[in-house]
Design a protein that fits this description.
single chain; 306 residues; 2 domains; 5-stranded parallel sheet; 4-stranded parallel sheet
Amino acid sequence: MSRHFITVDSVSTKDLATIYERSCAPFDDETLKGQGVALVFEHPSLRTRASSSSAVHELGGYVTFFSDEEIGLDKRESAEDVGRTLSQMFAICALRVRSHQIFERMASATNNEMSLINLLSDAAHPTQAVADVLTIAEHFAHGDVHQLAGLHVAYVGDATNVTRSLSVALLGLGVDVTVAAPDGYQLTKGGPEDPFAIRGGELRLTDSPEDAVRDADVIYTDAWVSMGLEAETAQRRRVFAPYRVDEALVERAKPSTVVLHCLPAHRGDEITDEVLDSAASLVWRQVFHRRSAMLGVLRWIKEGKK
């Protein structure tokens, strides 16, 4: 049976530790020598496509990219038939999809013979979470993810798939997480990536960004308007205006506090230029570690096939 990386929560603590270790450990270029990885994107992404492609190439493999227009999951043909087709030619398929259920359906249709990697779904963004953990560990613990316990990360804004995977990953490492979001946009219990089910750090919810960032070591934010929600832009700008990460908010945290954003950033909305481009910003190291995360996940998957 092939290994999958679909949520952070679905991977054991031991396997997550291996992924973190493999992400930054020295490697040769034989891991994927001569092997292809299918990239299926219903949503566009600069960083996800670039990091996935570069990681596969660095491990000696090659990628074949399939856009939504080419495949049309459940429109041109079923997700099951897409999975069955790709499994005849690829051992690994990394997908960026609208519906998280696609993963379960494809895994079942292919009898788990093709490894699946979640590059983003409506429920989770696990590769981003790995990159975020690596970024925080690099800054605070010389790269040792197991030395992060006791840190405080404040997430400010719309609590989405990114928030869920980030919280699951951090809480499992003993990091305290506070999520500041308005009513109706806050984390809820349940689902395939459920921070409320994780033991370790403390999860706290608030509607006050000022309260959330007090004593925070890290402030994290994301777009107010996710892909597919463009019709809600005006409403969301009104609702989230008090949750903008600007200099005044950052000043309420520790002087040593750093800022993260998974990008793309809507400058002037969820974050200001002054913060995003400041010395406190680790955003570009996050981008770097998107590649690191894919290296770790791919190496872990291949080790499971031995």
